[in-house]
Design a protein that fits this description.
244 residues; alpha/beta; Alpha/beta knot; 2 domains; five-stranded parallel β-sheet; two-stranded antiparallel ribbon
Length: 244
Protein backbone atom coordinates (compact mmCIF):
# COMPACT_ATOMS: atom_id res chain seq x y z
CA UNK A 1 0.00 0.00 0.00
CA UNK A 2 1.31 3.50 -0.78
CA UNK A 3 2.02 5.99 1.99
CA UNK A 4 -1.25 7.90 2.39
CA UNK A 5 -1.41 11.49 3.67
CA UNK A 6 -4.65 13.19 4.66
CA UNK A 7 -4.55 16.91 5.42
CA UNK A 8 -7.29 18.71 7.36
CA UNK A 9 -7.04 22.35 6.34
CA UNK A 10 -8.91 25.53 5.52
CA UNK A 11 -6.72 25.88 2.40
CA UNK A 12 -6.73 22.58 0.49
CA UNK A 13 -5.38 24.35 -2.59
CA UNK A 14 -1.99 24.53 -0.85
CA UNK A 15 -1.51 20.76 -1.36
CA UNK A 16 0.45 19.03 -2.73
CA UNK A 17 2.09 22.37 -3.51
CA UNK A 18 5.87 21.99 -3.81
CA UNK A 19 5.50 18.28 -3.10
CA UNK A 20 4.08 17.95 -6.60
CA UNK A 21 7.53 18.66 -8.03
CA UNK A 22 10.98 17.06 -7.97
CA UNK A 23 11.49 13.65 -6.31
CA UNK A 24 8.29 13.81 -4.24
CA UNK A 25 6.28 14.81 -7.30
CA UNK A 26 7.61 11.94 -9.37
CA UNK A 27 6.90 9.53 -6.51
CA UNK A 28 3.34 10.94 -6.35
CA UNK A 29 2.90 10.32 -10.08
CA UNK A 30 4.15 6.75 -9.66
CA UNK A 31 1.60 6.15 -6.93
CA UNK A 32 4.18 5.64 -4.18
CA UNK A 33 2.29 8.06 -1.95
CA UNK A 34 -1.03 9.85 -2.06
CA UNK A 35 -2.33 13.17 -0.76
CA UNK A 36 -5.95 13.80 0.18
CA UNK A 37 -7.29 17.05 1.63
CA UNK A 38 -10.30 17.61 3.85
CA UNK A 39 -11.85 21.06 4.02
CA UNK A 40 -12.46 21.77 7.71
CA UNK A 41 -15.12 24.35 6.85
CA UNK A 42 -17.33 21.62 5.38
CA UNK A 43 -18.00 20.42 8.93
CA UNK A 44 -19.32 23.72 10.29
CA UNK A 45 -22.95 23.40 11.35
CA UNK A 46 -24.25 26.95 10.85
CA UNK A 47 -25.28 28.62 7.61
CA UNK A 48 -22.20 30.86 7.67
CA UNK A 49 -19.87 27.82 7.88
CA UNK A 50 -18.15 29.28 10.94
CA UNK A 51 -14.94 27.50 11.98
CA UNK A 52 -13.64 29.90 14.64
CA UNK A 53 -14.77 32.13 17.50
CA UNK A 54 -13.38 34.65 19.95
CA UNK A 55 -11.13 33.40 22.80
CA UNK A 56 -12.88 32.62 26.09
CA UNK A 57 -11.63 35.11 28.68
CA UNK A 58 -10.86 37.72 26.04
CA UNK A 59 -7.84 38.43 23.91
CA UNK A 60 -6.87 39.04 20.32
CA UNK A 61 -7.51 36.75 17.39
CA UNK A 62 -9.83 33.81 16.86
CA UNK A 63 -9.75 30.18 17.97
CA UNK A 64 -10.62 27.10 15.91
CA UNK A 65 -13.81 25.51 17.24
CA UNK A 66 -13.59 22.10 18.92
CA UNK A 67 -16.92 20.86 17.55
CA UNK A 68 -15.95 21.59 13.94
CA UNK A 69 -12.49 20.06 14.35
CA UNK A 70 -13.90 16.98 16.04
CA UNK A 71 -16.39 16.37 13.26
CA UNK A 72 -13.72 16.88 10.58
CA UNK A 73 -11.31 14.46 12.23
CA UNK A 74 -13.99 11.85 12.88
CA UNK A 75 -14.68 11.77 9.16
CA UNK A 76 -11.19 10.41 8.44
CA UNK A 77 -10.20 8.70 11.70
CA UNK A 78 -8.14 5.56 11.16
CA UNK A 79 -5.07 3.77 12.52
CA UNK A 80 -2.58 6.26 11.09
CA UNK A 81 -0.73 8.74 13.32
CA UNK A 82 -2.62 12.02 13.69
CA UNK A 83 -0.58 15.20 14.03
CA UNK A 84 -1.87 18.69 14.82
CA UNK A 85 0.55 21.44 13.81
CA UNK A 86 0.81 23.98 16.63
CA UNK A 87 3.66 25.99 18.21
CA UNK A 88 2.43 24.62 21.56
CA UNK A 89 3.37 21.10 20.48
CA UNK A 90 6.46 18.99 20.97
CA UNK A 91 9.24 19.58 18.44
CA UNK A 92 9.23 16.87 15.79
CA UNK A 93 12.37 14.74 15.60
CA UNK A 94 13.97 12.76 12.81
CA UNK A 95 13.34 9.60 14.84
CA UNK A 96 9.59 10.32 14.86
CA UNK A 97 9.70 11.12 11.14
CA UNK A 98 11.28 7.71 10.47
CA UNK A 99 8.60 6.00 12.53
CA UNK A 100 5.84 7.73 10.58
CA UNK A 101 7.49 7.08 7.20
CA UNK A 102 7.71 3.37 8.02
CA UNK A 103 3.94 3.18 8.54
CA UNK A 104 0.87 3.39 6.31
CA UNK A 105 0.69 7.19 6.31
CA UNK A 106 -0.30 10.17 8.41
CA UNK A 107 -3.20 12.55 9.06
CA UNK A 108 -2.18 16.16 9.67
CA UNK A 109 -4.42 18.89 11.07
CA UNK A 110 -3.37 22.42 10.13
CA UNK A 111 -3.96 25.06 12.77
CA UNK A 112 -4.86 28.67 12.01
CA UNK A 113 -5.58 31.91 13.86
CA UNK A 114 -4.82 31.75 17.61
CA UNK A 115 -4.84 27.96 17.62
CA UNK A 116 -7.13 25.15 18.72
CA UNK A 117 -9.82 24.97 21.39
CA UNK A 118 -7.98 22.87 24.00
CA UNK A 119 -11.01 20.65 24.51
CA UNK A 120 -10.36 19.18 21.07
CA UNK A 121 -7.14 17.62 22.32
CA UNK A 122 -8.76 16.51 25.57
CA UNK A 123 -11.53 14.74 23.64
CA UNK A 124 -9.20 13.26 20.99
CA UNK A 125 -6.12 12.14 22.98
CA UNK A 126 -4.75 10.22 20.00
CA UNK A 127 -3.82 13.53 18.37
CA UNK A 128 -0.13 14.43 18.71
CA UNK A 129 0.52 18.16 19.09
CA UNK A 130 3.60 18.83 16.93
CA UNK A 131 5.79 21.87 16.25
CA UNK A 132 8.57 22.40 13.71
CA UNK A 133 10.56 24.48 16.19
CA UNK A 134 10.59 27.76 18.07
CA UNK A 135 8.88 29.77 15.35
CA UNK A 136 5.30 30.90 14.71
CA UNK A 137 3.78 30.53 11.24
CA UNK A 138 0.57 32.04 9.89
CA UNK A 139 -0.86 28.54 9.67
CA UNK A 140 -0.02 24.85 9.90
CA UNK A 141 0.07 24.25 6.15
CA UNK A 142 3.78 25.08 5.58
CA UNK A 143 4.65 22.94 8.59
CA UNK A 144 2.55 20.08 7.24
CA UNK A 145 4.36 20.31 3.91
CA UNK A 146 7.69 20.10 5.72
CA UNK A 147 6.58 17.05 7.70
CA UNK A 148 5.36 15.32 4.56
CA UNK A 149 8.54 16.12 2.65
CA UNK A 150 10.63 14.67 5.49
CA UNK A 151 8.57 11.46 5.39
CA UNK A 152 8.29 11.06 1.62
CA UNK A 153 12.03 11.32 1.00
CA UNK A 154 12.48 8.25 3.22
CA UNK A 155 10.06 6.05 1.28
CA UNK A 156 11.83 3.20 -0.55
CA UNK A 157 13.04 4.26 -3.97
CA UNK A 158 12.20 7.97 -3.67
CA UNK A 159 15.77 9.20 -3.20
CA UNK A 160 17.53 6.48 -5.16
CA UNK A 161 20.58 5.44 -3.15
CA UNK A 162 19.43 4.04 0.25
CA UNK A 163 22.35 5.62 2.08
CA UNK A 164 21.16 9.07 1.01
CA UNK A 165 18.71 9.02 3.89
CA UNK A 166 21.05 7.74 6.59
CA UNK A 167 24.11 9.98 6.35
CA UNK A 168 22.15 13.12 7.22
CA UNK A 169 21.94 15.65 10.01
CA UNK A 170 20.11 14.31 13.10
CA UNK A 171 20.16 10.67 11.95
CA UNK A 172 22.87 9.82 14.50
CA UNK A 173 22.19 12.69 16.88
CA UNK A 174 24.73 14.99 15.20
CA UNK A 175 24.85 17.51 12.37
CA UNK A 176 26.06 16.17 9.07
CA UNK A 177 29.68 16.79 8.08
CA UNK A 178 30.35 19.55 5.46
CA UNK A 179 30.17 18.64 1.78
CA UNK A 180 32.33 19.70 -1.20
CA UNK A 181 32.32 19.12 -4.95
CA UNK A 182 34.24 20.19 -8.07
CA UNK A 183 35.96 22.39 -9.01
CA UNK A 184 38.81 21.49 -6.66
CA UNK A 185 39.72 25.16 -6.29
CA UNK A 186 37.23 28.04 -6.19
CA UNK A 187 38.07 31.65 -5.31
CA UNK A 188 41.31 30.52 -3.71
CA UNK A 189 39.63 27.85 -1.59
CA UNK A 190 40.36 24.17 -2.15
CA UNK A 191 38.61 20.97 -1.22
CA UNK A 192 40.33 19.54 1.90
CA UNK A 193 43.18 17.26 0.92
CA UNK A 194 41.84 14.33 2.94
CA UNK A 195 38.71 14.19 0.77
CA UNK A 196 40.91 13.91 -2.33
CA UNK A 197 43.21 11.26 -0.82
CA UNK A 198 41.14 8.18 -1.67
CA UNK A 199 41.86 6.89 1.83
CA UNK A 200 38.40 5.85 3.01
CA UNK A 201 39.45 5.34 6.63
CA UNK A 202 40.94 8.85 6.82
CA UNK A 203 37.89 10.32 5.11
CA UNK A 204 35.52 8.59 7.54
CA UNK A 205 37.57 9.81 10.53
CA UNK A 206 37.64 13.38 9.18
CA UNK A 207 33.90 13.39 8.58
CA UNK A 208 33.19 12.05 12.04
CA UNK A 209 35.42 14.69 13.64
CA UNK A 210 33.87 17.54 11.65
CA UNK A 211 30.37 16.28 12.47
CA UNK A 212 31.19 16.31 16.18
CA UNK A 213 32.99 19.67 16.06
CA UNK A 214 30.23 21.42 14.12
CA UNK A 215 27.51 20.00 16.34
CA UNK A 216 29.33 21.14 19.47
CA UNK A 217 29.77 24.68 18.10
CA UNK A 218 26.46 25.19 16.26
CA UNK A 219 24.00 23.07 18.24
CA UNK A 220 25.21 22.71 21.83
CA UNK A 221 21.77 21.31 22.72
CA UNK A 222 22.28 18.38 20.35
CA UNK A 223 25.86 17.94 21.49
CA UNK A 224 24.83 17.83 25.12
CA UNK A 225 22.32 15.07 24.39
CA UNK A 226 24.76 13.15 22.22
CA UNK A 227 27.78 13.68 24.44
CA UNK A 228 25.74 13.18 27.59
CA UNK A 229 24.52 9.79 26.40
CA UNK A 230 28.06 8.81 25.47
CA UNK A 231 29.44 10.01 28.78
CA UNK A 232 26.76 8.09 30.70
CA UNK A 233 27.55 4.96 28.72
CA UNK A 234 31.26 5.34 29.40
CA UNK A 235 30.58 6.03 33.07
CA UNK A 236 28.45 2.91 33.29
CA UNK A 237 31.18 0.84 31.66
CA UNK A 238 33.78 2.16 34.13
CA UNK A 239 31.40 1.46 37.00
CA UNK A 240 30.87 -2.13 35.85
CA UNK A 241 34.61 -2.64 35.50
CA UNK A 242 35.21 -1.30 39.00
CA UNK A 243 32.51 -3.53 40.49
CA UNK A 244 33.96 -6.56 38.74
Amino acid sequence: MPFAATILTLYPEMFPGPLGASLAGRALERGEWSCETVQIRDFASDRHRTVDDTPAGGGAGMVLKADVLGAALDSVADARPILAMTPRGQTITQRRIREIAAGPGVTIICGRFEGFDERFFEARPQVEQISLGDIVLSGGEPAALAILDACIRLLPGVMGAPESGTEESFENGLLEYPQFTRPVEWEGRTIPEVLRSGDHARIAAWRKQRSEDDTRLRRPDLWERHGGARDRSASGARHETKDD
